[in-house]
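Lab notebook: predicted structure, single chain.

Context: the supervisor wants predicted structures on file for every construct in the current expression panel, including those that have not yet been purified. This is the next one on the list. No modifications to the sequence; it matches the entry in the shared construct table.
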Amino acid sequence: MNLLNGSTPVMTNNYTYDVQNRLASVGNGTHAAHYTRLDGSGLLSNTAIKTSGGTTLLSTDRLWTSKLAP
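Prediction complete. Output recorded below exactly as produced.
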């Protein structure tokens, strides 16, 4: 997606999707957020913000648990 000022690009974002058409990453050419999901689920298990050179700036892991009602 491009944001234009007239015909001049001001900002460009890139989006990728996994095989199930869920958002996998969003980037702007300098930084990107990468999303990993729990196997067999749509729940996010990790989000990583990386530079275009591959350096990880931030990474968050999620632990999902389930409880059965008594």
